[in-house]
Design brief:
The protein is α/β, with parallel strands linked by helices. It has a single domain, classed as 3-Layer(aba) Sandwich (Rossmann fold), CATH 3.40.50. It is built from nine helices and twelve strands. Strands 2-1-3-5-6-7 form a six-stranded parallel sheet, with helices on both faces. Helix 2 runs parallel beside helix 6 and helix 4 packs parallel to helix 5. It starts with a helix and ends in a 7-residue tail after the last strand. About 60% of the residues are buried.
């Protein structure tokens, strides 16, 4: 990612990201001053700053954490977080669940906010009419939405929502060499990939220590942060243009017009957008996922990969491995990716538990 180079151009300043998850703790050392609690609408505000399992706080830190106090430094430390809490199975109290918003309510509220990006590191095997309507409404309001595709690729092919809805960017997880993680779901609703292995994540809601996790959740957070960097550098762009720039510069070794069911259009490389000041993002009103949005999820989406599973990742022109392969092999090493170096070098790329509506399936 070479975040230190990207931060010379953009830190995400001026961009707000709505994090819909288990809530966000605004009092961790890394998130102090980063969470805009006052901007959460009262209709969905219950518990927004009371993270009941640590997942939502991890996502927020990966996006906009400052790294203070030895915490995680996010990829877009200049961005701000607007927290939304929804009820997962981990929220045991029936009273709490009753008061907590559902996914459709949170998406609708985020759509009416000033947040440009909606980050959703969760999913469910089945969608709802209300949730789909909320997604369409958010799209009509110019929001850029990212969602995790799921972590059950080794067990079964799960079509996860909201990732599979039209207008939502479905995020797969890869290792640092660009190979898709074996647990990452596959299908024609996979749009892009982002690193999702070996990253510190809060162990639980006590916020005493980090554990190492993996998953498409963090891949989603990293993608949201990448979009924040680009939108901050190009504030006049639309959601379509920000997404188009990520797709055009993604690392891949297959034809752009034939996306892989493992990694979609490839591994995101926001640095490639930021280092090219004259990049053409395309027309403001052109949806870069128009083909997928028109087709919808097909029955054989998870069974017919477009890109070969044995293809090799081409080298990034700068010398490092930055492209992707269609491989389903998970990285066997414990190599991690560092994006910030200094007195407190911090990891910001990797994976964590994938939150699922009604049940949470940990990878």
């Amino acid at each position: 990612m070479k975040a230190d180079e990207m931060w010379k151009v953009s830190t995400g300043k001026g961009v707000k990201v709505a994090v819909i998850d288990s809530g966000v703790n605004p009092n961790t050392s890394s998130l102090k001053g980063q969470v805009l609690t006052a901007e959460v609408p009262q209709t969905v505000a219950y518990g927004a700053t009371k993270d009941y399992d640590g997942h939502g706080t991890t996502m927020a830190e990966l996006i906009a954490g400052t790294g203070a106090g030895g915490g995680l430094k996010g990829l877009a430390p200049g961005a701000k977080i607007v927290p939304y809490r929804i009820a997962f199975e981990d929220l045991k109290s029936k009273a709490e669940r009753t008061k907590t918003a559902n996914s459709a309510q949170a998406i609708k509220a985020a759509a009416d906010s000033d947040a440009k990006i909606i980050s959703m590191s969760y999913g469910s095997p089945g969608g709802t009419e209300a949730e789909e309507a909320a997604v369409k409404y958010a799209w009509s309001k110019g929001k850029l939405m990212f969602a995790a595709v799921g972590n059950e690729g080794e067990k079964r092919d799960l079509i996860g929502y909201p990732a599979a809805y039209p207008f939502v960017v479905g995020m797969a997880a890869s290792d640092e060499n660009g190979k898709v993680a074996s647990f990452s779901e596959r299908g024609n609703y996979v749009d892009l990939a982002s690193p999702g292995l070996n990253v510190p994540s809060w162990c639980d809601n006590t916020f005493r220590s980090y554990c190492t996790g993996k998953g498409t959740s963090q891949a989603t957070a990293i993608a949201s942060a990448s979009a924040a960097l680009i939108w901050s550098a190009h504030p006049d762009w639309t959601a379509n243009q920000v997404l188009a720039s990520l797709i055009d510069t993604a690392g891949r070794d297959w034809a752009k017009n034939d996306p892989s069911t493992y990694l979609g259009y490839g591994l995101i490389r926001p640095r490639k957008v930021l280092e090219n000041g004259g990049i053409n993002p395309g027309a403001a009103g052109t949806d870069p996922l128009a083909k997928e949005n028109a087709t919808g999820v097909t029955k054989d989406a998870a069974a017919s990969p477009s890109a070969s599973a044995s293809s090799q990742a081409p080298k990034d022109p700068s010398g490092g491995p930055a492209s992707t392969t269609g491989s389903t092999s998970e990285s066997s090493g414990n190599t991690t990716m560092w994006v910030a170096l200094g007195a407190a070098a911090v990891l910001v790329i990797g994976g964590g538990a994938f939150a699922v509506i009604r049940s949470r399936r940990e990878a």
